[in-house]
Amino acid sequence: xxxxxxxxxxxxxxxxxxxxxxxxxxxxxxxxxPLEEVIxxxxxxxxxxxxxxxxxxxxxxxxxxxxLLQFEPKAIVIACNTATAVVLEEVKRxxxxxxxxxxxxxxxxxxxxxxxxxxxxxxxxxxxxSRMYEKVLRKTHPDLSITSLACPGLVPLVEDGHRKMxxxxxxxxxxxxxxKNISLDTLILGCTHYPIIVDLIQKAVGDDVVLISSAxxxxxxxxxxxxxxxxxxxxxxxxxxxxxxxxxxxAFRKIAEDWLKRKIDVTQxxxxxxxxxxxxx
Length: 281
Ligand code: DGL
Fold this sequence. Notes:
This protein is of the alpha/beta class and 281 residues long.
């Protein structure tokens, strides 16, 4: 009898999202930390999270964290604004490795960029409802003018691979219509799916508005933390990344390879397990 065992090396970076949005963070991690191994899980079968009740977002995200912990990552990035708003603080308390969300990095980048102090935030219903961006932005800059807008129609455009469809721009324009007469100089893409359609968003809001994706700042925060902990990979080897999805591996691979500009292997998994003790207590 042969026993097949898959042996994974410990010490990669776990990255999660409700679907393909977190790949925008992966791309920056690849650019800034090319020697690090990434283990990615996207819950495309249950995406979008943004319109779900908080308790579902909570359970589904903890299931993804549980899934990543089996690979013994040295850090986890919650590359989903909706999930960051719901679980970041709780997960940070419960596990001993660094856990990074995407809201604080995005807010920091926007504060650096704005000249007029008039900032817009677009995100999912869950993220906008949580008012997390406003809280974080106002913590250090109480006099900012902040306009927040939920755009539930944008994630399906990305997740279903429809961003190149003829009416994609009309959908983006319709979603962003409420911002039309509001003067902003900086707009936070408060959902990690949005950088994938950044060209359409920029066209809709005009070239005078600077768009902020949290990906770059998140990867640089990750890099600083790993450097501080002396955990950066220093030996020059080709990292072997692993991508998992709960949805169709073919659909995931198509979007991922197009976005990341490289070939990847994708494995389908299910995530309906009860939350483990280390996270449920
Ligand atoms: N990519 C996710 C975010 O940053 C959410 C998409 C969704 O599932 O609604 O919020």
